[in-house]
Write a structure and sequence with these properties.
Distance between the termini of chain A: 26 Å
Oligomer: homodimer
Helix content of chain A: 40-55%
Largest interface: A-B, 25 and 25 residues
Radius of gyration of chain A: 21 Å
CATH class of the largest domain in chain A: Alpha Beta
Shape of chain A: globular
Strand content of chain A: 5-15%
Low-confidence stretches of chain A: none
Largest sheet of chain A: 9 strands, mixed
Number of helices of chain A: 18
Chain lengths: 407, 407
Amino acid sequence: MNACGVVVEYNPFHNGHYYHLQEARKQTGADCMIACMSGNYLQRGEPAIVSKWTRTKMALSGGADIVIELPYPFATSNAEYFAYGSISILEAMGAEAFCFGSESGNMDDFITAVDVFQSSRHQLDAKISELMAKGYSYPKTSSIAFADIGGQTLDLSTPNNILGFEYVKASVLNGYSIRPETIQRKSAQYHDEELGKGVIASATAIRKAIFSSSSANTADYLPSPSYDLLNEDHSRFNKMNWEMLFPFFKYKVLTSTKEKLSSYYQVEEGLENRIKECVLHAETFNEYMTALKTKRYTWTRLQRASLHIFADAVKEEIKSALKSPPPYLRVLGMSKAGQQYLSHMKKKTPLPFVTTLSKFSHPLLELELRTSAVYYHIAKKSSGTVFNEYAQPPVMFDEREQAFKNS
Amino acid sequence: MNACGVVVEYNPFHNGHYYHLQEARKQTGADCMIACMSGNYLQRGEPAIVSKWTRTKMALSGGADIVIELPYPFATSNAEYFAYGSISILEAMGAEAFCFGSESGNMDDFITAVDVFQSSRHQLDAKISELMAKGYSYPKTSSIAFADIGGQTLDLSTPNNILGFEYVKASVLNGYSIRPETIQRKSAQYHDEELGKGVIASATAIRKAIFSSSSANTADYLPSPSYDLLNEDHSRFNKMNWEMLFPFFKYKVLTSTKEKLSSYYQVEEGLENRIKECVLHAETFNEYMTALKTKRYTWTRLQRASLHIFADAVKEEIKSALKSPPPYLRVLGMSKAGQQYLSHMKKKTPLPFVTTLSKFSHPLLELELRTSAVYYHIAKKSSGTVFNEYAQPPVMFDEREQAFKNS
């Protein structure tokens, strides 16, 4: 079998994601599509609007054959570690290619950019340090520095080009055999906040519509199974965003000493003092973040630091996890074709597959379950029953019947 | 001036407390009544139904002249440390006597019991160890052991006799000059759960009535200023009990590793494993506690361990605090007479008075403020403004006008 990987968040799964899966399958000729997907927390340092289980169902009903969970430290990290974790998983899954959407759409641009990076690494680092000393955020300085040293062929100021560059870099630097491919993104831009007129809108705009009190209809922008799954999820669980976590985050910050706060990943350079101060007077997450934001840190960087406090993710724990590729392959769901591919891969991959939680243990999985348990605790509507991830088998999807089994 | 101390929780301040203050003043001939009062968390390891500020107002309008805060580690500890902390504060306040309510009512019984304790300490410890090895709880074994070695004159199975014994013991063992006195308690028993027919009911029964959906009227059992203060408080803040803390406690346990849980005070002998397990399936605090309870630990002991997890109170922090008497005297409120007494005492006491938080710092006070901030965070009704303890001056009460100033 010929597998192609994609790196995704599906927050939620929309028409653009559907298009990407179909095109990637066509372009690579794959008969198995593997989605390496973030769990309940995402790269921008925030909770997913619906749980990984609902998003797994969306993915399977939208064309993915296997969904593998990207562990928390990678899923909530900057583009570099996010890419390192996910491409390592797709390599370990034996995918022949991975295919990412980008603003550029031209694979040569990425290959050239990684070449430039490899040959000018020290020069680049020096330039970044110089710019950061002036108080700019990391993403901004790195894009300027990169253009400066001759990486002009690829615009590294757009989010999907940045991610694509990191995917290709991770694969080249680690000597992986997986082949990178790219597809130009259609219509919507990643950061677009409003629903447009086409059938493709950004996940950001769709989430904004879902949370807004206006009756903006998102049905046009989501494949119908995805739309139904979203509504079904929201009948049992709260729509999750940072505002839902905030009362707990505030409790956590209020009960923690500054020393303790500084033990969490990405809480550095005295950030604990400002976090303590800003949380005390804030009634909402937005108030807190607005007070906390400075030129030095991006909004995302501050969300990530806050998420690690919320999740009790300490520096050593995350740093040690990020040193090596993810050490296991946790299967969240599969189609019939995915199931075939998995039984075929079981003998080939060096990493253990995790389908039954009680049969496997690892500190990284323990962290995943801790952060997940608290997601369900907060997402659960008061009338609901306790959701126990230990009792949750992988989602099984029958593509011919378009139905989920034992889930 | 002649001051008499009382050790109190006032949860809430009721007719029995009023009677106790009047009788203690009469019996000791004091012209200044000093209440050493727990802050927002109490000896049974639970939050107070209303904050320390409202309870301070209740105390001042009910006959107290000065209210001093008993710091968290002592206020939430067993009878021995609770007594050590509070009697040390009253000694440092220069009170000539302290006066406690007891089932016995006979001071000689307490003096004899402390003599027996001093002369048979080793024998007593051996007997307690022997009984505890059989799996009984500490309060039970110590009462049996004490009767066994000849302490029959005082019944140490009743809660106020136990506390009284510890008060007298603390004063004798530390060579304090403060003189112990006792008053027999009227009518209600500490543990009574129902409102009786008299004007005195236990605080337990009053709280039960307040939380019950029935329209049981508590006005008969509270002095009218206390009743009004309670209602006024509940128009701005939630009625606090463990159920209010539980969602946050559950979040805390779910996000903590077992190793981290075992770092909290009183989480010992593998209790962290059972706490993790019991919290996962519990929807309410009562469900959690019912699942957690065994013969080995009293309900109170388990509430205390849970409270320390909630409050992020680690072993070293509490153990080191309990080694010495409270290191400062934090004034929560005063009457005119109390104000006079305080200015007179300022030159005499070796300990610093704390009235303005920004002018004093101590790790113990920092712990107090952390645990208090989270109390207000949870107690606050959604429409309320953020309560900031740093901005709260001591409550000033004019007994002639029966009014509060600058509070």
